[in-house]
Each structure stands twice: as structure tokens, then as C-alpha cells.
UniProtKB/TrEMBL annotation:
<keyword id="KW-0326">Glycosidase</keyword>
<protein>
    <submittedName>
        <fullName>Uncharacterized protein</fullName>
    </submittedName>
</protein>
<feature type="active site">
    <location>
        <position position="257"/>
    </location>
</feature>
<keyword id="KW-0378">Hydrolase</keyword>
<dbReference type="Pfam" id="PF00295">
    <property type="entry name" value="Glyco_hydro_28"/>
</dbReference>
<dbReference type="InterPro" id="IPR000743">
    <property type="entry name" value="Glyco_hydro_28"/>
</dbReference>
<keyword id="KW-0961">Cell wall biogenesis/degradation</keyword>
<comment type="similarity">
    <text>Belongs to the glycosyl hydrolase 28 family.</text>
</comment>
<dbReference type="GO" id="GO:0004650">
    <property type="term" value="F:polygalacturonase activity"/>
</dbReference>
<feature type="signal peptide">
    <location>
        <begin position="1"/>
        <end position="26"/>
    </location>
</feature>
<keyword id="KW-0134">Cell wall</keyword>
<keyword id="KW-0732">Signal</keyword>
<dbReference type="InterPro" id="IPR011050">
    <property type="entry name" value="Pectin_lyase_fold/virulence"/>
</dbReference>
<dbReference type="GO" id="GO:0071555">
    <property type="term" value="P:cell wall organization"/>
</dbReference>
<dbReference type="InterPro" id="IPR012334">
    <property type="entry name" value="Pectin_lyas_fold"/>
</dbReference>
<dbReference type="GO" id="GO:0005975">
    <property type="term" value="P:carbohydrate metabolic process"/>
</dbReference>
<keyword id="KW-0964">Secreted</keyword>
């Protein structure tokens, strides 16, 4: 394909731009909105916003053009303008020669054809430093077409449905001003990411949609999640092994299963979660509030330095939980002596938590007999009962194999 020259009228003047050819063998119109910004519009690479055409290749062409453009002064912007863009499974892989911004202003729609459902990722980003995703647009996982195919509770060999957005080995990233609806599986997954900021996002799926976690974090450090609304059919935020230095604040969670650490202890390799700070968050009509969950008869692992503070609960079924008998395919159950578990839980604080519980036991701290929970602190708790059982007047607490101390006022009365 022959190279060509494009003339663009800007600010009343005619500027001459040289367009580069890349290995993807396509032409790109590069719009310059400022000296520090190069814009790569997916429409110029052949994208069609009709909601039906598969735009995966057009999106990849725009990305790789931006990824290879050397911008010494600023960022390269992949622009997805207004319109409905259908995209099949697609991955954007670096490293890139300049920082990349995805400006999503339109709507991205996932496939509705069952033959295209099964994969671990719908839209993926890998090995990119300095990635920003913004623009106020929406990604629609069209999960209602796929949820009937989720049979994992009864089929151990079930096929994987895709996460809507997956970030692997993305450093110094930012995701802001974005909406994700009806994911087939998890909305956002972070793996091996470092220094990543998620703010002002809205993630929603029906309460009965299976495994539609809002954000799942693993093997990642220095992650911040703030000023966001998450309402799904599973955990609003889940932190699994390798999550370290995670700061979560000003998040509205509901419906869903709350904000969880774990589950841990299911793998032979030693797992860990540490340095977790959940503060100034609100839970509305969730199955759980703040939770640490580990598997029974666990392999050696640990959870340490966790703080839940400034939390508001409104009609939450299980506001405060440490559950070392967690099984994803069975109901939580109580027993005087728990099975042996190898996950050590140390230095956990629940502080300034108030609101209402729909269950009688508002505080459940059930730890392993072999490795009791250490240095657990409960303080300034006020959780009233709003369930439907008439003879219950107030909430209670239940602690098993927990060592720690209470402080301040606690309602229900503490069990430490």
C-alpha cells in the first residue's frame, strides 16, 4: 500500500503532516489536538459504529499505530468516538514507545453469539507502562446471553466466561470515568499490576448474575480504588493472593457480596494478602460487608495488616466476617471447632462501623483452631438489627479461636 500525504486544516491554517506506515499495513489519519497529544481515531482505521460489525482488527490497528509512534512531548490517544462498536475478544500488547490513552466516548459491545463466549478475557491490556483509560463511555458485556452457560457450581470442568477488562503487567496505569455493565464474568481484573489508580467508575450487573465480581486484584501492589459505585452479583471488590498495599475509599457497594479478601489457601504455593485499607465506604443490601475468607484445611498462607474503618452498613446480611471455613459451593456454617487451616491471620482492625444488619449475628469472627487469628481489634461498632424475625431485638456477635482486644463502644457486645 503506497504511502500518502494528508492535509489537515487547523485553526485556519494548513498544516502538512507526514503519516507513517506500520507492519499492520493500514493507513491512519493522525489528528493533533495539541503539541503534546497525537490522536488515532479508530474510525480512520476502519471501525464501524453500527453495533454489529466486528471492530477488533480496526481497534488493534489504531492501538499499534499509537503504540509505535514516538511522542517525546506527551501522550498518544486512541479515540473511540460516540457510537456503538461491537468488539470480539481482543488484546492490546505492549511495550509501547510512548504513554497511551484510550479515550472511550462511545459504547463497546461484547459478542452475543455463544460460539464466541468462552475465553478468560474480552478486552485485555498487557505489558504497558503509563496506560490511561478514560472518556466517559460504556463497555457492555452483554452478560445476559452468557449467564445461563455458567454451570460452575455443579460442573468442575466448566468453561470460562470472559472478564470484561483484564490488565496484566500494566504499571503506572489509570482507569477513570468509565461505566461497565452486564459483564459475562468479572468486570475488571488486575494481575501483576503496580501503581494503578481506579476512580469514578460505575460497575453494574443484576444481583443474581453469577460470578460478576466488580474488581478482582491479584499479585498486584499499590492499587487505589476510589469515588466509585459497584453493584454486581458477586464481590464488589475481591483481593486474592499477592494483593499488597491496596487503598479503597469512597466506594458504594450494593448489591453484591461485599468487599472481600480471599479466598486463600486453595493452592500449594504460599499465598498472602497484606497492607489493605478499606475506609469511608458504604454497603447497601449486600450479602456481606467486609470479609476475610479462607479455605478449610488450607495450605500455608497469611493475611496481615488489614484495616476496615469508617464503614456504613445499610441492611447488610453479614456485616463483619472472618470465615476460615469458606467454600464457594456451600453455605457458610458454624461449628464449635473448625477444621485445621494453614492461613494465619494477623493484625486486623474493624473500627468506626455503623448501620444495620439483617442477620442476628452481625459480627462473625471464626478462625482456625490450629492457627487462631492474632491481634484482632474491634472498636466503635454500632450495628442494629433490622431483620424480619420478631423475637430478635438486637444483634449479637460470635468469635471462635480469635485473640485480640476491643476498644470504645461496641454494639453488638464484643466477643473478644
Amino acid at each position: 500500500m503506497a504511502s500518502f500525504l494528508s492535509f489537515v486544516v487547523l485553526a485556519g491554517g494548513l498544516f502538512f503532516l507526514s503519516l507513517h506506515m506500520f507492519a499492520v499495513s493500514a493507513q491512519f489519519y493522525v489528528e493533533s489536538s495539541s503539541p503534546a497529544k497525537k490522536i488515532f481515531n479508530v474510525l480512520s482505521s476502519g471501525a464501524n459504529p453500527d453495533g454489529k460489525t466486528d471492530n477488533s482488527e480496526a481497534f488493534k490497528k489504531a492501538f499499534y499505530a499509537a503504540c509505535q509512534w514516538i511522542n517525546l512531548k506527551g501522550q498518544n490517544v486512541v479515540l473511540i468516538p460516540s457510537g456503538n462498536f461491537m468488539v470480539n475478544h481482543v488484546s492490546f500488547v505492549g511495550p509501547c514507545k510512548s504513554p497511551i490513552v484510550f479515550s472511550l466516548q462511545g459504547v463497546l459491545k461484547a459478542p452475543s453469539n455463544p460460539a464466541l463466549f468462552f475465553s478468560d478475557t474480552w478486552i485485555g491490556f498487557r505489558y504497558i507502562n503509563g496506560l490511561v483509560i478514560e472518556g466517559g463511555g460504556t463497555i457492555d458485556g452483554q452478560g445476559a446471553f452468557a449467564w445461563p452457560y455458567n454451570d460452575c457450581k455443579r460442573n468442575p470442568k466448566c468453561k470460562t466466561l470472559p472478564a470484561s477488562l483484564r490488565f496484566d503487567f500494566v504499571n503506572n496505569g489509570k482507569l477513570q470515568n468509565l461505566r461497565s455493565i452486564n459483564s459475562k464474568n468479572v468486570h475488571l481484573t488486575l494481575f501483576a499490576c503496580h501503581n494503578f489508580d481506579i476512580t469514578n467508575v460505575k460497575l453494574t450487573a443484576p444481583n443474581d448474575s453469577p460470578n460478576t465480581d466488580g474488581i478482582k486484584i491479584g499479585a498486584s501492589t499499590n492499587i487505589k480504588i476510589s469515588h466509585s459505585i459497584i453493584g454486581t452479583g458477586d464481590d464488589c471488590i475481591a483481593m486474592i493472593s499477592g494483593s499488597e498495599n491496596i487503598d479503597i475509599f469512597d466506594v458504594l457497594c450494593g448489591p453484591g457480596h461485599g468487599i472481600s479478601i480471599g479466598s486463600l489457601g486453595n493452592n500449594i504455593e504460599k499465598e498472602f494478602v497484606k497492607g489493605i485499607n478499606v475506609r469511608n465506604c458504604t454497603f447497601i443490601s449486600t450479602q456481606n460487608g467486609v470479609r476475610i475468607k479462607t479455605r478449610p484445611s488450607s495450605f500455608p498462607s497469611f493475611v496481615s495488616n488489614v484495616s476496615f474503618s469508617g464503614i456504613t452498613m445499610k441492611d447488610v446480611n453479614n456485616p463483619l466476617i472472618i470465615d476460615q471455613q469458606y467454600s464457594p459451593n456451600a453455605e457458610w456454617f458454624y461449628q464449635e471447632k473448625l477444621n485445621a487451616g494453614g492461613v494465619m491471620i494477623n493484625n486486623v482492625k474493624f473500627e468506626d462501623i455503623r448501620g444495620t444488619s439483617t442477620s442476628e449475628i452481625a459480627i462473625k469472627l471464626h478462625c482456625s483452631a490450629e492457627f487462631p487469628c492474632q491481634n484482632v481489634k474491634l472498636g466503635n461498632i454500632n450495628l442494629a438489627y433490622t431483620g424480619s424475625t420478631r423475637n430478635i431485638k438486637q444483634t449479637t456477635s460470635s468469635c471462635v479461636n480469635v485473640k485480640g482486644q476491643p476498644f470504645g463502644r461496641i454494639q453488638p457486645p464484643g466477643c473478644l
